[in-house]
Design a protein that fits this description.
The protein has helices at residues 2-28, 31-56, 76-97, 126-131; strands spanning 66-71, 100-108, 114-122. The protein is of the alpha+beta class. The protein has 2 domains: 2-56; 66-131, Alpha-Beta Plaits, CATH 3.30.70. The chain has 4 helices and 3 strands. α1 (2-28) runs antiparallel to α2. The two termini are 22 Å apart. The longest helix is centred in the N-terminal third of the chain and has 27 residues, at 2-28.
Length: 132
């Protein structure tokens, strides 16, 4: 908690400093100083994004890997096809995020799709991303 408060204090003072420097730079028409202010504001934005990430994924289990279980349920062929669509969607999502997704169990449907599947998704904050 102390680290979060410290980060917020740094960001607050950084914004005040950037505002003051921007006003002085505008009066003196100093483009180099304006560019420096823009770089500082970008650095503060990156700090804010990191802080938001820590807030979103503050759960005890969030940093861990995850198992994803998909079951077709009732509905016959259409439900099995939909389960297959979900499986492909999650596999692509995991790949796009840079996670390692391994199909641990797969039960093929009678006509199309799947009856069920279990996927092990490995990666930093995989559980947190799937939980949100």
């Amino acid at each position: 908690m102390a680290q979060i408060v410290e980060t917020l204090d740094e960001m607050s003072s950084g914004l005040v400093d950037a505002k003051d420097l921007l006003l002085m730079s505008a009066e003196e028409e100093d483009q180099a100083a304006v560019d420096d202010v823009a770089a500082e504001v970008e650095r503060l934005r990156a700090s804010l994004e990191k802080l938001e990430f820590r807030r979103m994924f503050s759960g005890e289990m969030d940093p861990n890997n995850a198992y994803l279980d998909i079951q077709a349920g009732s509905g016959g062929t259409e439900a099995q096809d939909w389960a297959n669509i979900l499986l492909r969607m999650y596999l692509r999502w995991a790949d796009k995020r840079g996670f390692d997704a391994t199909i641990m169990e797969l039960s093929a449907g009678e006509v199309a799709g799947i009856k069920g599947a279990t996927v092990h998704i490995k990666g930093e904050y995989a559980f947190g991303w799937l939980r949100t």
